Amino acid sequence: MPTPGLQAEPSLGVPGKKRWAMVVDLRRCIGCMACVSACKAEYDVPLGVWRTIVKVKDTGTYPNVRRNFMPRLCNHCDNPPCVRNCPTGATYKHEDGFVLQRYERCIACRTCIAACPYNARFVLPRNRTRVGINGVVDKCTFCQHRVEKGIVPACVQTCLGRSRIFGDMNDPNSEVARLVATEKTAVLKPEKGTRPQVYYIRPERAHTEQVASRPASYAARSDAEAFYRHNRGSRFFAGVL
Amino acid sequence: MITRNSLNLTRRGFMKLGGTAAAVAASLESRRLVAMEQSLGGKDFSAVTGAERQAVPYTCLACNIEDGGVAFVENGRIVKLEGNMDHPNTRGKLCAKGNAGYLHVYDPDRIMTPLQRTGKRGEGKWKRISYDEAATILAAKLRQVIDRSEREGDPAIRNEIVFKWGRNRTGGAVSRFMHALGSNTMVNHTNICESSKKVGLEPSWGPDIESCDWANTKYIINFGSNVLETAYFMNPNAQRLVDGVVANKAKLVSFDVRLSNTAGYSDEWYAPFPGTDGAIALAMAHVIMNEGLYDADFVRDWTNVTAEQLIAHLKPYTPEFAEEESGVPARDIRRIAREFATTKPATTFSYRGPCKHLWGAYQEAAIHMLNVITGNVETKGGYCLPRGMGWPQPEPNPPAGKVPSVLAKPPLYPLASHAVSTNVPYMIMKGEAKVSVWMSYYDNPVYAYPSSHLWKDFLTDESHVPFYVSFSPYMSETTELADLIIPDVTYLERHDPESMPSGLYPCLSIRQPVIKPLGGTQEFRQTLIDVIRKVDPDEALGVRKYFAFDTVEDWMRAHFDNIPGLKEAGGWNALKEKGVWPIYGKVDQETAKLVDRNGNEVEAEYGLHRKRLSASEIADAEIDVQGTIRKNGHAIGVSINGRGHVGFGTGSRKIEIYKEGWREYGFNPMPVYKRLASREKKPDELVLTTYKVNVHTQSRTSSLKVLAELYHKNPAWMNPGTAAARDITDGDLIRVTSPLGYIVTRAHVTEGIHPEVIAISTACGHDAYGRLAQLKHREADPEYALGGDPDVTHNVWWDDKGVHPNPIIRLAVDPIGGSQGWYDTVVSVTKAEPGDMYGDVRVSTEQAMKDYDETLRYAYTGDLHRAAHKEVDVDWDNLPKPALSVGH
User: Fold this and answer.
1) Are A125 and A95 in contact (CB under 8 A)?
2) What are the beta bridge partners of residue A24?
3) Which of B180, B489, B639, B781 is the most exposed, fewest CB within 10 Å of its CB?
4) Domain extent for A188
């Protein structure tokens, strides 16, 4: 059962409410990783954890090969299982749709990590460069602190291909609402009933399937192995080669 | 519901249609106003405290594209970088490297004090000294050379003062310094970069690069450029390329031996045999000319050849011939040629793939010609001239040195207008030039050059380089060999003037200290002022006056305060506030086009060559039979139908497909294809190519944790069939052997590569450049360094730093353009042998010296040059003698 006050009611399509959302136009993603780099700076995100990442996968056989890029981040679900499962009320859903973390309440029990179908959460390591919040669960915030000041998230700001588009899904005139209304879009794991609010334009199977696929090449596999050797007990690895 | 694209069309059409359309458009317009969209940037706030971060504009120098940026400062620390929304070409965005650029400032291994060597060269023993002491030591060394030159009455001695740079964005400061010292020996890095592209283009139409109108084009042929990851102007080009492909429905066809992100994004990808792009381009030209698909007016009015001459010249270059050379099917070459010629507007873009070979300049010239014969030059959506903007040098400005420098302008390469920096150590080791003082700035040849081990031997040997000073703030493979290090600050802490033709809107931009330089470090420009003052303390040499700036900022004011237009806008102060000038408009949120206050697009200017000459310019001018307008011996334009146009920056003011200057030295004056030695390799050999990735520069970014986390190792790409034939599986330890020796690395078996190619990326495998790049991050801070970042010390999880391929890459110089043939090394690839360890490098310096002798045989005086150019109509026994010339 949702804890009153922590789990805001789903706001998608509710008049008078905001419902922030992101559209990722996969036709426009070139895998440049500017979003990853900007996000790491914005929050002093330590090594070994990511609020957003771009997965890369090649498909086909020579010479008919294509490369597919799949940006990943928290889906800021309208019905987020992480919030339902948090025993301390550290994770909560903002009435405008952000799924956020109250660090002072977090006991790093990892229940939310287990509950998230998107692998969007992680435990902050003890050592960071400049921000002193450590040892608790963290995640993408949709840059709530920027959005509330009228600015798009950092990843959207820097996106070279303008693949990431951000706005209020409840405003029918917003670019995100119009794109979702007019383009073929998909969300990840809709069957989980989470009502994710990151919409992908024109995903091919190669995109959506790689979300769950294990690293295939030696290069990716050896990175994953090195990662788990260094971060024993971690389930979260978002790295790319 | 109306899509974004049709919305734009409606808005544009509305101006012409009126009536109903206007009503529809007006309703769309008002609907757009209703949406409360978030702003795209310009401000930033702390995620922890919510406090607004201080914004300071700057110009990026993560790589050489010079994107406009804004740095955000929190409690005196640069915490975030963002694109400058006022920059007309980079439009508020930075790439991954640009976003990570602040990490250069806080690199735990950054050198925070001048250092004097106390042990042997390269031993790593240093004494910390002050900037003043360091400037005194350098000034004394320089003054010794000057005094000897004066004493012996030989100004050539001044050329023993050498300045080698990899990246010189000082806006003339280095030239001012060197010319004040009387030396012309400035050695750039351009021949390891793209110089043969430049030399393929300059005699063709003037400037050294094209500026494609990506966003407005309908068809793009990309020859060997990884424009979505690296290449020149990656960020601004990538933005507009995606707009072209997605919003404007342009088709993108790529030729690349490897599936780069660009190739992987293309509608069609073809993997030609390395170095055969020129054959493909010539075959396309063959099809276009023979099938009458060319722009007859443009060829007639704007080139120095006729259609008939072109058809005759292109006769041997059939698509079948190109298929034989490249492996790309003739039917595809034919079809793409037709599509390219009949889809308007269209453009090519090319970068290092075609030009980084022996005779790379021919390949670039062949590709350029495709745009010329189809009339796509300087059209909206086409292949445009670059648009830069100049600024004046403060007066007085010193004249060049009195004697030309053999190192800066090697006589055996008279057409290589961007010099041949790879040859410099060989020339010195062979006694062709002498060095007394070697200075280096943003330069790491011991890592970044072909046969990089030779540079290490060269710089370590005091008989070749008696005194070496590096201005680097990082302990690179090269800087660790220095006798003296006078560290510059990072690009976020210093002043530079900038202008880069990164798009269709010319502009100026600046660097300024976003924060006070860390820990009392001093910017390079101030070091130059200090050194000159110490070289000429009493003004007896008469050079102190060239550096009579009270402050570095005064130097900047002298550049910018008197430029018409900018002066009225506030000069340097305006640039400090906005970072860029002029401001063309705002970036439209949905189209990313520049728009004015009313939302109308601020269109770029096209047709620069058609600009009319004024009556006063034409007065007393003569028109020759070719239509070139000459005045006082100078070509000033082209006459077409009795009208004078400025034309292109060539001797005839036309596009010179025929290059008389090439013929004089026995090169073919027309774009031709020459078969490379690598094309004749044995069947079981492979061609080694290298490449850059989207998150790294050549050598400077492996120390940046965010980028190193994304990309840190570089297993060698091999096609599955190629690997299987050698009993190699994915991840196996392999030996890659060239005549220079071998490296031991691992195989990355992938479908995305030509079966006869092995590709190894750069930016990995450092033996220096700080602890992180070498994965020695748990070691204690060096005494001179800024010191620990706990994130780096504790959280680095990867354990593979990669293996650098440069030691086994052979020196090979394009005799025309001077480029290093990076993709001409033939290797054999086998499973590693017992005892081989990952990262082993065994290479020979003797073989490197032999490669130098070998490549000189292709220079215009060499026997292989003559053998390869039997068709050229020139008096072979009376080619011009190798001569020294001034300039660089």
Assistant:
1) no
2) A164, A200
3) B781
4) 21-203
ipTM of the complex: 0.96
Q: Is residue A190 part of a domain?
A: yes
Whether residue A127 is contained in a domain is answered as yes
Any idea what the CATH number is for the domain that residue A83 is in? Answer: 3.30.70.20
What per-residue confidence (pLDDT) applies to A240?
A: 59
Question: Which residue(s) pair with B736 in the sheet?
Answer: B743, B829
Chain A closest-CA separation from residue B759 CA (Å): 14
Q: How far apart (Å, rounded) are the C-alpha atoms in residues B509 and B65?
A: 12
pLDDT confidence band for A211 (50 / 70 / 90)? low
| Residues of chain A numbered 96-115 and touching chain B (CB < 8 Å) | none
To the nearest whole angstrom, how far is the Cα of B35 from the nearest Cα of chain A? 5
Dist. CA B586–CA B826, nearest whole Å: 50
Residues whose CB is less than 8 angstroms from the CB of residue B244 and which lie 6 or more positions away in sequence, other chains included: B214, B215, B216, B217, B220, B250, B252
> CA–CA separation, B351 vs B724, rounded Å?
32
- Structure tokens that stand for B405 in this block: 């420098």
Confirm or reject contact between A222 and chain B (CB < 8 A).
yes
Set out the domains of chain B in order of their start, with CATH numbers: 115-193+400-559 (3.40.50.740), 195-384 (3.40.228.10), 609-663 (no CATH), 678-863 (2.40.40.20)
Q: Report if residue A228 sits inside a domain.
A: no
**Is A53 among the domain residues?**
yes
Our count of domains for chain A comes to: 1
Predicted confidence band of residue B20 (pLDDT cuts 50, 70, 90): very low
- Residue contact B99–A131, C-beta within 8 A: no
pLDDT digits (tens, 9 = 90+) for B579-636: 999 999 999 988 999 999 999 999 999 999 999 999 999 999 999 999 999 999 999 9
pTM: 0.95
Q: Which residues pair with B581 in a beta bridge?
A: B508
Output the CA–CA distances (angstroms, integers) from residue B328 to B280, B283, B339, B682, in the order listed.
8, 11, 16, 20
Instruction: Convert the pLDDT of each residue in B119-155 to its tens digit.
Output: 999 999 999 999 999 999 999 999 999 999 999 999 9
**Nearest-angstrom CA–CA distance, B175 and B401:** 10
Q: Which pLDDT tens digit goes with each residue over B450-504?
A: 999 999 999 999 999 999 999 999 999 999 999 999 999 999 999 999 999 999 9
- pLDDT for the residue A239: 59
Is residue A128 within 8 angstroms of chain B, CB to CB? yes
pLDDT computed for residue A43 by the predictor: 97
